[in-house]
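Journal club prep, notes for RB
We'll compare a predicted complex against what the paper describes. Inputs for the zinc ion case:
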Amino acid sequence: MNNKLSIITLTCLLVISIFSPTYASETVRIAIIQDTSSLSLKIKGFFQIRDLEKHKIIYHAKSIETTVTTYKSGIVIGGIKPASDKLLIESDDPEAFLINGKSFRGNIQLIKKSNNKLLVINCIELEDYIKGILYHESSHYWPMEALKAQAIISRTYALYQMQENRRKDFDLTSDIYSQVYGGEASERFRTNKAVDETQGKALFFKGKIIPAYFHATCGGHTEDAALLWNIDLAPLKGVVCPYCKESPHFNWHYDFGLKDIEKKLSAKGFKLKNITNLGIEGKDASGRITNLIINSEQGETKVSAKDFRETIGPNLIRSTNFSVAIEGKDAVFEGIGWGHGVGLCQWGAYFMAKDGKSAEEILKYYYPGTNVKTF
Ligand SMILES: [Zn+2]
């Protein structure tokens, strides 16, 4: 085992067994597969399997290609049947793991859940994780200061999740990660440079890591996080954003069949049939809609704009800042911005960086009262 892997292993063990009183160190635990009965596993290099319940190494070998399942007393890895519900696999190859055909660095934890299904967790150094996702969250052609701002908030967001989920099996879920994380294949020179130049830096408010939310384009004013989630923090109350006007996502338009809206909302338990009118009830300080009032043969139905967007599809109804009118059998939406609107406006950051603003200036603008510090 080289030193790097030993550190990741140690951190995995610490997080699981001791619950470090500070931030869960620099290893992030990502649930890459949840609730599966079996998976394919290929390991390169010399590897060892550690029983995390008995705290001992139970198997070691060189390279393996096999299937992983569960059995009554534990987990089956090819011909090996450890009587344990929690295993850690480490290898001396930094890109050792191919799981269901996808490459992963760091270490892998296999956990058998009470429903006999497998949970697969990738333990990876935080800086490597940020390198793996930055390319997907920001174009590597963007100005360096915008990339650095994104690297700092991606790191901050991960640290916040590590802190919040310390007592859970993992820090971050796979929904975003599995789609966007591609290990070394996703890394680019400029995005890696932004990560290296901001190494260990995160965003703090009154000495604490903040949930550094971000979105593509705010459309003129960022949103108050308290209106969407149970997070009431001064840096996330929303700011005027004059910077994203030239964003390619500033305006959006979408025609949606009334029958399709009815179908999607009905599937979520809303009672409506043959929509006759769509109205808007209330707007918040940022201009985003509070509720939609939908009239149909079933009467009046009130749906929060947040739920409406999530139900119809957040990439179709790109924001909750829109107007809507019925034309024939369709609802015609005209909107501005893309995303929930909380925290940093990525296209605003892009134009601020183009205007010569530094990463720290950009972050101070979108998260007022915060400081960038090494954690
Ligand atoms: Zn903006």
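Talking point for the session: DSSP finds nine helices and 20 strands in the chain.
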